[in-house]
Design goal:
Order of helices and strands: HHHHHHHHEEEEHEHHEHEHE
CATH superfamily of the largest domain: Ribonuclease H-like superfamily/Ribonuclease H
Pfam families: RVT_3, zf-RVT
Helix content: 25-40%
Strand order of the largest sheet: 6-5-2-3-4-7
Protein name: RNase H type-1 domain-containing protein
Number of domains: 2
InterPro entries: RNase_H-like (IPR053151), RNase_H-like_dom_plant (IPR044730), RNaseH-like_sf (IPR012337), RNaseH_domain (IPR002156), RNaseH_sf (IPR036397), RVT-Znf (IPR026960)
Largest sheet: 6 strands, mixed
Radius of gyration: 29 Å
Distance between the termini: 47 Å
GO molecular function: nucleic acid binding; RNA-DNA hybrid ribonuclease activity
Low-confidence stretches: none
Number of helices: 13
Structural class: alpha/beta
Organism: Dipteronia dyeriana
CATH class of the largest domain: Alpha Beta
Length: 341
């Protein structure tokens, strides 16, 4: 049963927020987006705006797939009657399919490209389906593993291109370290299934001998991952205050959380700003330090936050729960993990 004495009191001033923006500040962009109806997103937008395609080509392809090119056949349908003639060949009328598929110059260009790739071109198709197939083939490079063959090397030579071998990964050793005597160290983390969706946060408190002083998991509703990580740090500080642990070392694998706590910044989404302001106030009343650790060294907190996804109520353990006891033992014995980047 909820008790009002559990609510932490902090001298936080109230302020008005704009609910349609993340930071709570009103802007022309957020006001305009609120006034107009949201346009539905097409399912293939990620295929066009991917990192393997230059932005200028993505913009061109975007207009092609949406049939937004101002060709003369489209202008005539809009009521602008012109003497339509292709500006390239000067023979046929200007249309979408003619410019990109059936024009003699377009045919010669496609034949040169397809011969370099040792493929056959078929002009018995529309320009939209042709471009869509090319975009889908290019997008497979991003979602599938590449297998390099001699034929691929020959194709690069035909275009006078050089292959760029993948760089060797950087291997880093990551070891969890206990706090100094008299201090309590808390590792916190947040998780979300598909942002924004059901999420959770968790944390573990340990002393200078790496003995567990307590663990918590809190299920969350409809949060992004970064919000879950912010709430994990805020809830961890609140648990420390309730248990009268006044010398706290918080460690997180989120650079965003570490940066905000280091600078005591309150620039967080307005939905969690009140909880975050209370967190900043609480750490001002204790000896506090914060540090970053890679995820490989924050495996216990990561396991706790993911366990919260399967729960419906908050949980607190005085000792490490069974599902993460092995990870706790690894940290206690100083076993190292490795990060590949």
């Amino acid at each position: 049963m909820f008790s009002i004495d559990r609510v932490a009191i902090s001298p936080v001033t109230y302020s008005l927020v704009w609910a349609h923006s993340r930071d709570g500040q009103v802007s022309c962009k957020s006001a305009y987006s609120c006034m107009i109806c949201d346009s539905p997103q097409v399912p293939w937008w990620r295929d066009v705006w991917c990192r393997f395609i230059p932005p200028s080509r993505s913009g061109l392809t975007w207009r092609l797939l949406l049939n937004r090119f101002p060709t003369e056949d489209r202008l005539s349908r809009a009521g602008f009657h012109l003497a339509s003639r292709c500006s390239v060949c000067g023979v046929s009328s200007e249309s979408f399919d003619h410019l990109f598929i059936r024009c003699p110059l377009a045919v010669s260009l496609w034949e040169a490209v397809f011969s370099a790739f040792q493929r056959r071109i078929s002009v018995d198709t529309s320009a939209l389906s042709f471009v869509w197939r090319a975009v889908s083939d290019a997008n497979r490079l991003e979602i599938r593993c590449m297998h390099n063959y001699v034929d691929d090397l020959l194709i690069l030579h035909r275009f006078d291109l050089r292959g760029r071998p993948a760089r060797a990964p950087v291997i880093r050793s990551v070891i969890w370290s206990p706090p100094a005597p008299g201090w309590t160290k808390v590792n916190a983390d947040g998780a979300a299934l598909i942002s924004p969706d059901a999420g959770g946060c968790g944390g573990i408190f340990r002393n200078c001998r790496a003995f567990v002083k307590g663990c918590f998991v809190i299920p969350l509703d409809h949060v992004f991952v970064y919000k879950a990580e912010l709430l994990a740090a805020s809830i961890a500080i609140n648990f420390a205050r309730q248990n009268r642990w006044h010398r706290i070392w918080l460690e997180s694998d989120s650079s965003y959380v570490v940066q905000l706590l280091s600078s005591r910044s309150e620039q967080v989404p307005w939905l969690i700003r009140q909880a975050w302001q209370r967190c900043i106030y609480q750490i001002s009343k204790m000896e506090f330090q914060v540090s970053h650790i890679f995820r490989e060294g924050n495996q216990v907190a990561d396991a706790l936050s993911k366990h919260a996804l399967r729960l419906e109520v908050d949980s607190w353990w005085a000792n490490s729960p069974s599902f993460c006891s092995l990870l706790v033992d690894n940290d206690c014995m100083g076993r190292e993990s490795f990060r590949f980047s």
